[in-house]
């Protein structure tokens, strides 16, 4: 059986799969849209030691109330709504809280909004190791840098803590259709991705969607290539065409999946012009190729007739 006879059946299967997948996904998530919050710690700073190194011959001392601080550390985390749905104040059953190991004591917690979203979080002390905030609106891609200032809970026990400790902040909340605030590790405490601006971020149902899209794009390209008469070339050129079509189909399927189903590391690409430009270049190349093949195949058909 020729491939052209199978192609309508393949498209029919894909057309049936799409609404089934959408219905099952909606049933699994329920009427409340799925929420996604992620955070990453990116470094601890010994504030007092840095101050004392600014100028030789000077020594800084800090007081917290009537207590003299012998050590002062700051640690920052990025908190981001990495999903597609806004988190409304009415979605909160328990506000966002930040906590730290009992070896440490919070002195203060503050936030800085990143990007176009102006998110304000008012932190209130619950205990020496816990701060909480009131419910607020957090739109998709809203990002907040949370900075905490800490000191040792007990100076007499600080001998058991390394001279350059890495302090971990932990976030939690009770939000409708949010399983947990996920922690994401960043290599080197940085958002910079070395090498070319290529980052694949696919997980869960995104993998199913990626494979389905790749199959559709690849089969459609092969059909258009055959319709345009390029398979009448020698084997080397035909193999090169098939290989090129497969690579472009993989890239296009990944880009479409990236925008339809946010992956686990989608916040890496926040406001990244290079990655956005690369994604749109792939989509434009795919559109031009398929349009050109369709025109070539139509022209060849008219000439043969």
Characteristics of this structure?
five-stranded mixed beta sheet; single chain; 5 helices; alpha+beta; four-stranded antiparallel beta sheet; Immunoglobulin-like; transmembrane helix; 305 residues; transmembrane; 24% strand; membrane; elongated
What report would you give on this structure?
- The chain has 305 residues and is an alpha+beta fold.
- It folds into two domains: 134 residues, no CATH class; 152 residues, Immunoglobulin-like (Sandwich), CATH 2.60.40.
- The protein has five helices and eleven strands, in the order αβαββββββββββααα.
- A five-stranded mixed beta sheet has the order 6-9-4-1-11. The protein has a four-stranded antiparallel beta sheet with strand order 7-8-5-10, with no helix packed on it.
- Helix 3 runs antiparallel to helix 4 and helix 3 packs parallel to helix 5.
- The two termini are 23 Å apart.
- About 5% of the residues have low confidence.
- Keywords: Membrane, Transmembrane, Transmembrane helix.
Could you give the topology of this structure?
Blueprint: H1 3-29, E1 37-46, H2 47-52, E2 62-64, E3 67-69, E4 73-81, E5 92-99, E6 104-114, E7 123-127, E8 130-133, E9 143-152, E10 170-175, E11 181-183, H3 205-227, H4 235-260, H5 273-304
Parallel strand pairs: 1-11
Antiparallel strand pairs: 1-4, 2-3, 4-9, 5-8, 5-10, 6-9, 7-8
Helix pairs in contact: 1-3, 3-4, 3-5, 4-5
């Amino acid at each position: 059986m020729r491939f052209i006879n199978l192609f309508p059946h393949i498209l029919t299967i894909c057309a049936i799969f799409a609404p089934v997948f959408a219905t099952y996904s909606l049933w699994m998530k329920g009427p409340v849209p799925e929420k996604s919050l992620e955070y990453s710690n990116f470094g601890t700073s010994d504030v007092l030691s840095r101050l004392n190194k600014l100028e030789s011959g000077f020594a800084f001392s800090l007081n917290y109330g009537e207590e003299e601080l012998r050590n002062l550390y700051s640690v920052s985390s990025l908190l981001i709504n990495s999903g597609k749905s806004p988190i409304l104040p009415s979605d909160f059953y328990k506000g966002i809280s930040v906590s730290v190991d009992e070896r440490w004591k919070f002195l203060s917690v503050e936030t800085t909004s990143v990007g176009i979203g102006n998110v304000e979080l008012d932190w209130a002390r619950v205990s020496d190791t816990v701060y909480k905030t009131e419910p607020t609106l957090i739109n998709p891609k809203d990002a907040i840098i949370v900075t905490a200032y800490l000191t040792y809970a007990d100076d007499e026990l600080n001998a058991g803590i390394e001279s350059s400790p890495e302090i971990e902040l932990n976030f939690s909340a009770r939000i409708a259709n949010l399983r947990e605030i996920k922690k994401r590790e960043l290599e080197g405490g940085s958002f910079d991705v070395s090498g070319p601006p290529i980052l694949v971020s696919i997980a869960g149902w995104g993998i199913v969607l990626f494979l389905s899209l790749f199959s559709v794009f690849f089969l459609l390209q092969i059909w258009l290539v055959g319709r345009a008469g390029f398979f009448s070339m020698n084997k080397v050129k035909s193999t090169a065409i098939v290989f090129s079509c497969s690579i472009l189909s993989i890239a296009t399927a990944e880009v479409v999946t990236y925008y339809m189903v946010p992956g686990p590391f989608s916040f890496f690409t926040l406001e990244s012009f290079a990655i956005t430009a690369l994604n749109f270049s792939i989509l434009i190349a795919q559109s031009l190729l398929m349009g050109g093949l369709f025109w070539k195949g139509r022209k060849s058909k008219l000439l043969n007739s």
